[in-house]
Amino acid sequence: MHETEILNAEILAVVSHELRSPLTAIKGYASTLLLHKNRISPDEQQEYLSAISEASDRMEIVVERLLQLSWLETGATSVHLTTVDLGHLMKEAIESFGQRQTSIARAHGRNLTSEQTVFDVQIASQQGTIVQVDRQLFRIVLDNLLENAVLYAADNSHVEVGISALQSFQCQAIDGGFLRGQEESVQQKLLSLSFKPVIEIWIRDSGIGIPAEHLHHIFDRFYRVDTRLTREVGGLGLGLTICKYIVELHNGLIWAESLEGKGSIFRIVLPLRER
Fold this sequence. Notes:
- It contains eight helices and seven strands.
- The chain is of the alpha+beta class.
- The chain has two domains: 2-73, Helix Hairpins (Orthogonal Bundle); 82-271, Histidine kinase-like ATPase, C-terminal domain (Heat Shock Protein 90), CATH 3.30.565.
- Mean pLDDT is 78; it is low at 227-231.
């Protein structure tokens, strides 16, 4: 019980900080506008309103992630499988992200422009990317992974995105020692998918990478690797947890491979169902 209370206190502290910071900014700028409206130039007023908008976006992200996690953990989310072209869904997600990239980055504390990230898309033939998934839930996964790849990448970087159908899945990460040291459930899932038809999705960035000692924890709730950039970007540490829940609801597996300072690659493997 004591450990549970400590965990709850830590969670409350993280959530409080992520909500209090943008709320403080909103109150500060709004109060200044109300008290000194006649003494503030139109350009300054626009700057203050933009700051309020960005802080509001940050709060919206926090609340949305908390709600998504709550729905997934309590079982309130049902999986509605439909026939989906994952290649088309990925292109939709990239296009949507490109349109919102600047506002998303600013909400997370980074100053990026939509021209700074180039997506290198490698997608198999249309027939090979058609699967049975919950379209809405899987779009959340793609959005979260694309967001991470851009936010933690170097400026003017490339993000590689790929989808391919494999008739006999052989996980290279197993040969590289990935299987050893993983949770038993992960080992069993990898082995159960081996040599079976699957669809594989990967998103590779050229960012700061993830230290080896953190790789096996990044999907834990509220877990964040403590670096200068992660402190700059901010966030709850829930995006990858949500991705893991959704992928596992589809009987799939998600994991990360990374070299510190050289970027990361996130992989998803889903079993192919007969249509």
